[in-house]
Write a structure and sequence with these properties.
mainly alpha; 1% strand; 334 residues; two-stranded antiparallel sheet
Length: 334
């Protein structure tokens, strides 16, 4: 009896492959529908965080000590980690403050996570480094490696596991800073319009954050928080300094310096912001031109590795086939 089945190409059943691809496509469609139906509004979490900050400022100004203590949310896990670190004498206030600043720059508003970052620096090397020590020296997985390579694997695992929390925070800070840098010129233009329309500084920040909240959510969050602090803090300069501390960007520091000088000396806000906006737009254009100028050098390697071989095959392939057929014909004729 002959072998039954559908048509085959290179020994592969075409119907079976089509059935598998159809199943994968159906699963992808169902997953896409589920993702769309279960998508949450990203602004909800940001609004909640800003409202929490508003309540904290209210508590710090008007609430009594007992009510202020009630508004402070306790985190049992963070308290346990803090207790462990304090018992080991490895927790310093300066270290906690530095990590808290990094968390704010990364867009993470919960200060108690600073203890988790420091705790991760202590625990991750023990877990992953100890596991790698066991795999290298306790098993035969790396038996063929030289002692120097084994030591290098263990050392790299310890270093990477210790630096993992800082690398994660640095990555989030870089992404957030780039997103804020893109929207800053537009935000300054809107601030100029609001200032010329007669709005106060806190009202102008609130208006700009509402207008740019969808296009640049990170910048909208920072401006909204600044507007809240301008309305509640006793010193308006502190609100601007907090903005410069939360955003790791020199352009924001320039805006903050301009705002502080305007508040102190009464200089025109619209003209100063207009100059800053023009400078930031020129800087953004120069950055784009720099990336465009690097494209030819970047495209050289893909061009050599992927595009030129295909061109050679397309151009020289028919000629090679013709030459091969000609040689075969000549040999057969002879």
């Amino acid at each position: 009896m002959g072998e039954t089945g559908g048509p085959k190409i290179l020994g592969i059943d075409v119907l079976w492959v089509a059935t598998m691809l159809s199943g994968v496509a159906a699963f992808a469609v169902m997953f896409a529908i589920y993702t769309v139906m279960s998508a949450r509004d990203p602004m909800t979490k940001r609004v909640k965080a800003l409202n929490d900050r508003r309540e904290q400022l209210k508590a710090g100004i008007t609430a009594s000590t007992k009510r202020r203590a009630k508004l402070v949310q306790r985190n049992d896990t963070a308290d346990r980690m803090r207790g462990i670190l304090q018992s080991m004498k490895v927790l310093q206030d300066s270290q906690v403050k530095a990590v808290q600043i990094k968390l704010m720059q990364a867009g993470i508003r919960k200060k108690e996570w600073a203890v988790a970052v420091i705790f991760g620096r202590l625990v991750l090397p023990i877990v992953f480094g100890g596991l790698m020590v066991y795999l290298v020296y306790g098993t035969d997985m790396f038996a063929t490696y030289t002692p120097l390579k084994q030591y290098g694997i263990v050392a790299v695992s310890f270093i990477l596991s210790y630096k993992a929390p800082d690398i994660f925070l640095k990555n989030k800070i870089t992404k957030r800073t780039d997103a804020i840098r893109k929207g800053l010129p537009d935000a300054l233009d809107l601030l100029v319009i609001c200032a010329e329309a007669g709005l106060t500084v806190d009202a102008a920040f609130q208006r700009v954050s509402r207008e740019l909240g969808r296009a640049y959510p990170e910048l909208g969050d920072e401006f909204t928080l600044t507007a809240i602090e301008l309305g509640f803090l006793t010193e308006r300069r502190a609100a601007f300094e907090n903005l410069a501390m939360r955003v790791k960007l020199d352009a924001i520091k320039g805006v903050v310096t301009t705002m502080v000088q305007t508040e102190k000396y009464g200089t025109p806000l619209a003209s100063a912001l207009r100059v800053l906006s023009a400078e930031f737009r020129n800087e953004r254009m120069m950055r784009a031109e720099e990336k465009a100028a690097r494209l030819p050098a970047i495209m050289t390697v893909p061009l050599i590795l992927f595009i030129l071989p295909v061109l050679f095959v397309v151009i020289l392939g028919p000629a090679a086939c013709s030459i091969s057929d000609a040689f075969k014909g000549g040999v057969g004729h002879s």
